[in-house]
Design a protein that fits this description.
about 170 residues, mainly alpha, two-stranded antiparallel sheet, 2 strands, globular
């Protein structure tokens, strides 16, 4: 369930220090959501390309069945159920459009400056939530990630003063 939700809302920066183990029950609790909604693919100089992080430590916990046992079955059930009844999750995500975080206001301002045009806070937050909405609707995960990575890569080059031959040739335009 945690892996499905982290993938849907684009939570990055997943490493062992961002998981807590509740010793009495053995349940895993995730913490530190600073890189949410694809921010790790968009605003880091080297984007996070891993869509679902299965570390060797997590894979070892699943041994001997690996990902083909209960993990795959539960992941499939969770995503199927969320796609059948997306309203609660989408309503919760809509909160971020109505009440964006301070970090998002800063990133929207940075993106606006990088694109040399206006990117409103609402447009920025809507784009982040739409990424999750598109995944939930069954969009191609690689295509969704590639679009955000391409956009961020172009922005990063502009921000650092590089000449964009790709833009002159029309690469990345839709």
């Amino acid at each position: 369930v945690v892996s499905a939700m982290q993938w849907l809302v684009g939570i990055g920066d997943r490493h062992l220090s961002n998981y807590l183990l509740h010793l009495p029950t053995g349940k895993c609790v995730t913490i530190d959501f600073g890189y949410s909604f694809g921010v790790a693919t968009s605003f880091l100089p080297v984007p996070e390309l891993v869509q679902l992080r299965l570390t060797p430590q997590l894979l070892a916990v699943m041994a001997p069945l690996g990902t083909s046992g209960p993990f795959r079955e539960m992941l499939t059930r969770v995503l199927t159920r969320l796609r059948q009844e997306p309203d609660v999750l989408l309503a919760a995500l809509e909160t971020f459009v109505q009440e964006p975080t301070l970090d998002w206001a800063t990133l929207a301002s940075k993106e606006s400056g990088q694109k040399r045009g206006d990117v409103s806070l609402e447009d920025f937050t809507r784009g982040r939530v739409d990424m999750a909405r598109e995944k939930l609707a069954g969009g191609n995960p690689s295509a969704i990630s590639a679009r955000y990575i391409l956009t961020s890569h172009i922005i990063w080059k502009v921000m650092n003063g590089f000449v964009l031959r790709e833009l002159e040739a029309g690469v990345g335009s839709s």
